[in-house]
Amino acid sequence: MRAASTRFRLGAFVAVSMLVTGCQPTEFSDAEKQTIASLALSALPPLPDDPTNKVANDPAAAALGATLFFDTRMSANGAVSCSTCHLIDRQFQDDLPLAKGIGTTNRRTMPLAGVAWSPWFFWDGRRDSLWAQALVPMENPVEHGGNRAAFAHFIAANFHDRYERIFGPLPDLSGVPANAGPLGDAAEKAAWDTMTDAQRGDVDRIFSNIGKMIATFERSIAPKETRFDRFAAALAAGKEPQGDAAFSNEEMLGLKLFIGKANCVTCHNGARFTDNHFHNTGVPVVAGLPEDLGRETAVKEVAADPFNCLGKFSDAGPAACGELRFMVTAGEALTRAYKTPSLRGAADRPPYMHAGQIETLEAVLDHYATAPAAPSGTSEVHPVTLSERERGALIAFLRALSG
Amino acid sequence: MKRTHWILIAAAAVVVAIAAVAVHMMMAPPDDLDMARSKLSEQKFYLATVAPEQEPLRQGELHAWVLTLATPDNKPVEGATIAVDGGMPQHGHGLPTSPQMTSYLGEGRYRIEGVKFNMAGWWELKFAISAPPGDDRVTFNLVL
């Protein structure tokens, strides 16, 4: 009797310790189930309004925006469009460590699925609306390399009627130089300086409307359902996941680690697997690139951007500009802080980090497990010990976030 | 028999150690966290009460709170200057936004806009209050 009781106690202990250490069988507590449900696509809120863009839900604007997105005439050399780096069949990114337009940029191209749910744009959040974001590459000499006067003339010459049906009459651009802009080369800047305030306002209005149409198109690019979402739906319904919704033991362990010991869900939270915030995670600098301080520089840039939420080209009043009005503008936490990227589809789009510094998912896990000191500022990451089995499980789970 | 006991004790110690590590990694908030939404400030100059404008609190959404200030004998405090701070004590970081007192709503009530909690866990919301009774501070705990 006594021996049997000891055996029972030992058996119970083994069962308990297996659960505690994350060994099989993998089951989820109620709290874990709640977290899993919060990550599922079904938890994604409806497409948010963009009050800064009055044509954000106008199908005609989306259609012309799509046309412009793929139009290589929107560049200085006639060879670069938004889709040069945001490839439609590659999750709207380019698989390169650093994006290549006319030249090479300093950052990794971001994918576009679910971008309309984001409060900040670019890796460092240096723009506060999707349309203000779309304007930046168009005038960057190493991306489209264009200038806003040329873009305004291009719209008037090629899309006159379609533009007017969306925004009303185009202004008279006859006195506007063919090439002019405040961010261009010396000749373009000089030409911009010769223009009247009214002419500059006209050009800026058309330029901002180009961004709004492209943004309206991009709002239609939504995250797609994945195997994880089907698994999560079955779990939430208390049903046995069927077909490809069934997770392997390895994927179950990976999910458990993701929302538990590995602390991934701290930042990669919500249905888009991002907290939409900026973190210093000790990602190394890339030799040869100019100094990059991430959010620290971006807060100044977005505050000064004439196309921000509080600017005259925004269709919203200050009440809609909370993110900008209440953004953190100083402090060490901003130094080399970059936006938490969504992990949906991430397994299929190496390399990783804001300048493609890390080539594989395995190496990303190594980075987070070892938590190296940041090149500047302070890394928020704390080291965590992961066994080979646990690393494999996390990667298996991340793959279930694709397709 | 004795040997079995030792194995059990050693095994139990391992379980406790693993559980302790797991708890540390998960960073559960302390059990005895003061969750009161109404309390006296540190120097007892003010009775402070906080309430979000909308409940339940939603992670990741910008929202507003109302801070109500009264003297300990329950008279509304007017004309206060309020600075807002906070963060996650277990993560060592501050708030993701910079909330501000944006309007006085009357009867000691102040609107605090621009609050956001971008992670689950234990958050502190701290108010530095400056008004005729004196400068004082009060901290509220929240768990998302």
Automatic annotation (TrEMBL), chain A:
GO molecular function: cytochrome-c peroxidase activity; electron transfer activity; heme binding; metal ion binding
Binding, heme c 1: 82, 85-86
Entry annotated with the keyword Iron: yes
Compartment(s) where it occurs, according to its Swiss-Prot or TrEMBL record: Periplasm
Amino-acid positions noted as binding heme c 2 in the UniProt annotation, renumbered to this chain: 264, 267-268
Modification(s) after translation: Binds 2 heme groups per subunit.
Sequence intervals crossing the membrane: none
GO cellular component terms, semicolon-separated: periplasmic space
Family annotation (InterPro entries): Cyt_c-like_dom (IPR009056), Cyt_c-like_dom_sf (IPR036909), Cytochrome_c_Peroxidase/MauG (IPR051395), Di-haem_cyt_c_peroxidsae (IPR004852), MauG/Cytc_peroxidase (IPR026259)
Protein name: Cytochrome c peroxidase
The species this protein was found in: Neomesorhizobium albiziae
From TrEMBL, chain B:
Stretches assigned to the YtkA-like domain: 48-126
TM stretches of this protein: 6-27
Classification via Pfam families: YtkA (PF13115)
Keywords: Membrane, Transmembrane, Transmembrane helix
Superkingdom as given in the UniProt entry: Bacteria
Database matches in InterPro entries: YtkA-like_dom
Protein name per the record: YtkA-like
Natural source organism: Neomesorhizobium albiziae
